[in-house]
Amino acid sequence: MSAPSDKSPESGPNDVPKAVVSRLSLYLRELQHLLHDGSRTTSSTQLGSLLGLTDAQVRKDLAYFGQFGHPGIGYHCDELVREIKQILGTNHPWPVALVGVGNLGRALLGHRGFSHQGFQVVAAFDVDPTKVGRKIIGIPVYGLDELPRVVKEKGIRLGIVAVPPTSAQEAADRLVAAGVDGVLNFASVTLTLPKNVSTVGVDLAMELEQLAFAVANRRE
Amino acid sequence: MSAPSDKSPESGPNDVPKAVVSRLSLYLRELQHLLHDGSRTTSSTQLGSLLGLTDAQVRKDLAYFGQFGHPGIGYHCDELVREIKQILGTNHPWPVALVGVGNLGRALLGHRGFSHQGFQVVAAFDVDPTKVGRKIIGIPVYGLDELPRVVKEKGIRLGIVAVPPTSAQEAADRLVAAGVDGVLNFASVTLTLPKNVSTVGVDLAMELEQLAFAVANRRE
DNA sequence: CTATGTGAAGTGTTTCACAGCC
DNA sequence: GGCTGTGAAACACTTCACATAG
Question: Can you give the residue ranges of every domain in chain B?
């Protein structure tokens, strides 16, 4: 009985390192480019070198979820794309709510990359009454009090916070109260949310800081 | 002679884990909020719990760069802010070039968070001749052929790529050719650049994918 | 008593290297 | 020949726990 029988009684991914999941997105993106460029098949070596990773890393990452490769051949691009989408949950579309129709919010409303990966921003929300009731890029703008109704009606599970830092916590709270399960936060604050709600934070200034550090510390 | 004498002959940060640097940005942001809220001092315990980290982690991270704390007291917020800015290199402002004045580009031009952390977008570039020559939010838009001159004149070292994926590699190449040392890339492609140039990639759809995965795999 | 800084222990992730397969 | 999947080794990071300082 030396076998690790507690693998994962149900089909759930027992405990996958977060870094692995984020590389999964990278693999997916690269595979889609390869497909678009006419490749039907690829290998862990090719995929890795395109992304600056080792071949072993690519294989180990994918092995967390199953056996998708074909020895001697490699991976079929379309097959692997389907598998990864299945794992990430993007094999079917996600309706998304956006809170905050400012500069950044409007840019996100029109962002092609979202719909390309199966995310549809189907409703926007703002406190500004001059924006409420209008449509922007075909997407209706509601007042925040309509959040619960619209979230329910459209089956929305993901919300994007694109408001100023001072309003971000409240915006997130209202999204959660309306029934959203995950929040993508663009405000430069750490949100405090119930732990049954997932959060991803993107701070654009922080990204530039990381870049500045890297540049300032090159070569010694 | 058991001491690891090869610590770091010069003052350069020998090999700091990348995760540490990114938490440094987190500490900075939280310290600025604490200062704004009137705190003069904090502790590794407080800072950690605000960010969901252990106290030991906070202390270890900071210890990579020096001894900034006061036993029995904690850390002086303003002092630590100065130190972290010094480490990140944001104790003096960075002029930044932006390539691509589309939806996202315009949002980035007006992004308050950048200037708040010492980044000034001082020039924008686009291929569209109807945009060139105008000013957007006070920032002049140039043609791409003016990149080398403007980068040199304004002492720009960082560039932001906010163009469609198919043009991203070329935009980055031209930034690098113009003399930029670091690129923040918003296009959903992995850039191939000389290794003396630093890159940070932000893919908004990837962030939503990570969120979707987390939501789809809760509780099980 | 509070809080830092740090070696040592513990945990997690990546790389290695090879058996097995096409 | 080429390539995957995977235990085992190597490496990196985090947590523990305590000596030290105010």
Answer: 13-88, 94-206
